[in-house]
Amino acid sequence: MRYLNKVAIVTGGSRGIGEGCVREFAKAGAKVVFCAPREGDGAKLESELKGAATFIRCDVTKPDEIRNLIDQTAARFGRIDCLINNAGWHPPYKTIDEFTLEDFQKILDLNVMSVFAASKFALPHLRKTKGNIINIASLVGSMGQPGATTYVATKGAVLALTKALAIDEAAHDVRVNSVSPGNIFTPMWQEGIDASPDPKKCRDDGDAAQLMGRMGTIEEAGKLCLFIAADATFTTGVDHLLSGGAELSYGRKSRKP
After folding, report:
1. Cα–Cα distance measured from residue 49 to residue 26, given in angstroms and rounded to the nearest whole number
2. pTM for the complete prediction?
3. Architecture of 7-237 per CATH?
């Protein structure tokens, strides 16, 4: 029970990495509040965890709904110890010629502005508890990715925001860190496999991208975030790679035929 009676908020907590965080923090004794824009998966997970987690519907592209998420959590539990900014999306792969300016603005609102807003609204509470923020970035935010200019830009922004906020909040004993996942097997990954013309090859390629020969799990993502929140108490402004070694060694990099 490494996080007993601490209060954690997880955005985008009904599926994928967010779900992994909700489950691991609940197992560690935390009171977890999580959100998603739709009721279905969130209500199901809340019911399964039997009082260990509370679901609040929230569209993180709407600042008023983020503020409501923070305010409801503080009112119900009297404190906030950890904010995990996980909500985000990876659009289909396209070149910059195919992305519109509206496409870029929308993903900025979802992947970056939501992190800024949730952090801003939660910090008055986190300063009282000397709590921490964990921002879910991405391995590609530092190494790039083909056909993903908009997504990579947002995750690079999350990495930079994490470091800048860590500097400011050190004066209040609030730690701010990030996690950069590589290939974690999530429902979004499965959707990509299902849409592929060769699903088996798509899955095999996803596994082979890591030195460890497999994708990570949402449970492993949750455990890393729990470690940062509960144990890594002398760590701030650090990006923690969860990549299975995907960024190491050489590979075919040329985009030319």
Report:
1. 8
2. 0.97
3. 3-Layer(aba) Sandwich (3.40)
pLDDT digits (tens, 9 = 90+) for 153-212: 999 999 999 999 999 999 999 999 999 999 999 998 999 899 999 999 999 999 999 999
Q: What is the 3-state secondary structure (H, E, C) of 222-251?
A: HHHHHHHHHCCCCCCCCEEEECCCCCCCCC
The contacts of residue 159 (CB under 8 Å, 6+ apart) are 137, 141, 142, 178, 180, 239
Q: Is 151 among the catalytic positions?
A: yes
Out of 3, 93, 151, 250, which one is annotated catalytic? 151
Q: What is the pLDDT of residues 54-68, one digit of tens each?
A: 999 999 999 999 999
Please enumerate in sequence order all residues whose Cβ is within 8 A of that of 143, keeping only pairs 6 or more positions apart, or say none.
Answer: 247
Q: Count the residues in the chain.
A: 257
